[in-house]
Amino acid sequence: MADQSIVSALVLGVIEGLTEFIPVSSTAHVLLAGHFMGFKSPGNTFAVLIQLGAILAILAVYAAKLIHIALALPTSAQARRFVFCVLLAFLPAAVIGVFAHDFIKTVLFETPQLICIVLILGGIVLYVIDRLPLKPRYKDVMDYPPSLALKIGFFQCLAMIPGTSRSGATIAGALLMGADKRSAAEFSFFLAMPTMLGAFTLDLYKNRDALSFDDGIVIGIGFVAAFFSALLVVRSLLDFVSRRGFAPFAIWRIVIGVAGLIGLALWG
What global pTM score does this model have? Predict the structure, then answer.
């Protein structure tokens, strides 16, 4: 395995961890960076499989809360409703993802121009939503009703188009449906757990015959880098959005999308 692959995996892993839980589309950043770095993985699995590192990061940060919820399930209707809401929000993406997996990976993941355009459009939409005079009705993820969770789940399906951003779609949907900014970001964290784990499992199964030992090493390096960089983001994001909102991320999306189109025009 070439040293260049190791360096690329490390860089892409850091990018994945830093961008997974903010509404800028980690998949778009990893795919575009990989494109310009000349990095290739069988079936474009790298961008999906290293997300496991980000999943473990959020599990580590929220371990105490997850254990508390699990222990409260037998006696707390609130805890049972919350778990049900997360699973309900996960359901639309699970169903659509299984049937659309091959199209997403072989067509959408292979179209960097589309990714850049979606980054720009998504940035504009996120900026507008962030500036709307919305009046939040829900400020605690534990109090989200199932109807709200299901609507957020349908918004999450938009993220199957690379560049949309899973967290961006769920956050935007939650804000429009009456959630405040902090709880919208936190619910996106919890919804990421089954969604990303499901995507990881499906992608690993679909590409089990195409992966080699060297691929495993590269993915492992990206996984570790994603884990540690995601830890930094998860621990600080909620406080950041409470103070600054999502406009900085919207602007970042537009800048990266425009830069990506320029890069594609100049270097292909």
Answer: 0.84
Question: What are the angstrom distances between the C-alpha of 196 and each of 106, 176, 232?
Answer: 19, 23, 19
The residue type found at 156 is Q
Cβ 124 vs Cβ 225: under 8 Å: no
Q: Does residue 1 have a pLDDT over 60?
A: no
Q: Mind listing the pLDDT tens digit for each residue in 171-187?
A: 999 999 999 999 999 99
Of 266, 252, 262, the closest CA to residue 120 belongs to: 252
> What is the residue extent of each domain of the chain?
3-267
CA distance 107 to 116: 15
The amino acid present at 176, given as its one-letter code, is: L
- DSSP annotation of 164: S
Contact between residue 23 and residue 233 where contact means Cβ atoms under 8 Å apart: no
